[in-house]
Amino acid sequence: MDVTLAREWMRAAAGAIAADADLLTRLDAAIGDGDHGVNLNRGFTAVVAALEKTPPETVADVLIKAGTTLMSRVGGASGPIYGSALRAAGKALPPAAEVQPADLVAALHAGLEAVRKLGGAAPGDKTMVDAYGPAADAFEQAVAGGADLAGAAGAAARAAAAGAEATVPLQARKGRASYLGERSIGHQDPGATSTALIFQALADVS
Amino acid sequence: MKKFINDPADVVAQSLAGLAAAHPELRVDTEEQYIVRADAPRAGKVGLVSGGGSGHEPLHGGFVGPGMLDAAVPGEVFTSPVPDQILAATKAVDGGAGVVHVVKNYTGDVMNFQLAAELAADEGISVETVLVDDDVAVEDSTWTAGRRGTGATLLVEKIAGARAEEGGKLAEVAAIGREVNAASGSFAYALTSGTTPAAGRPGFELPADEIEAGVGIHGEPGRRREKLRPAKELVRSALDAILDAKTFTGPVLLLVNGLGGTPLIELYLIYGEASAYLEERGVAIARQLVGNYVTSLDMAGMSLTLCQATDEMIRLWDAPVRTPGLRWGA
Question: What InterPro entries does this protein's entry cite (chain B) (predicted)?
Fold first, then answer.
């Protein structure tokens, strides 16, 4: 992945979130407060603007800048969570204009670790971890099996989408959906869904 | 959706501008999005900062002023503010004696205030956090997000604000705030959902004869759906839930709070039922407040909050307060 591709990933993620903002909002209205699409759309729009204003020169800086922007523009829980995920991923990368799939494996796991540390969510809590975890694992396995970036990103996107769908029967134990108790069962988690969109964006540009 | 707005994206900023125009005794930073007492920072006084998503007015911006908050930080509707905003407000009220953050227990609020507290510490400002989690409708558990902060937030802000106003030290102001939270319990019913400007449609739909029991203040559905019953029965159920969750022997502070779309005529009816039932249960009411204070946009509904009050809490409750949303003795 070179720095141009990293920027394209963020732009594609912004486009996917804008296109599916209504879906995210609908999912969030069922078990949250119905603003996940609006908030992420505001944040990723700001990310695209920030990356265009002063284009970073390394992949790491693209992710760190995107994370910092989300953290200071989104609010709620998703701002700090997505923000720290991207920042941690960026910090785990070598400071280079181009990074290898093996570098991205480490970066994805560093991002996941940051999410779990900040939100305290475990797999099965009906959160974005349920999409992110399988995606990071699938990416790692694909790279271990000799896949290139496109192959690994495709595997990660499929795993993230499956993980998001698998949140439907779960009862939420973290975040606002947890207040609903058993009534959170039967709905797809909006955070896991937006995570799947971001991994799909990576697959689309790779 | 029918609302008095210009554009859903501008609601918070334009409402803040209106608050600034209506209350010249407050200073509103429209750039960083916070509301602060005009005389802040006051040297040697502990600063009290609260905030959270917008849509709960008068909480928190309406409680900025002498005797209560030094600053409030509103986020987007039902979305916590960002760390930069909270840090800016914290710096604006720091008079060298430290700053107390009053934070309602929601994942986003907790994370953003925590990040801001770390940034403030980097700049040499001591911050103590008082977490409010009074909603007994949610089961308390370390494995979940825990109980929500609702009506007791007002009690914490009033009482800790009075303690800060009379010169209390950082640890003392935080301690009384935590004491009030620990002594409080709340329960809410919704008759209708609220509509966020961004979503443009109600968070949930209810048939004409059904209500949501155990709702929070963000338009999310409650713990369960019930048939509408006479107010007397609903008040008793709500108070039973609170009295079962914590020990209240009286005297108590009783807050009968509207969620934004319930008129005072109903809230006073509810107060009448609540005071009668508490008397029946042998719980004396020391002080009471009735009105729309911790709201959920235009949700029709009400919450009841009890706080087992010490003499010190009652003394601080009675202390003068002068804010747009709460004003007595000053």
Answer: DhaK_1 (IPR012736), DhaK_dom (IPR004006), Dihydroxyacetone_Kinase (IPR050861)
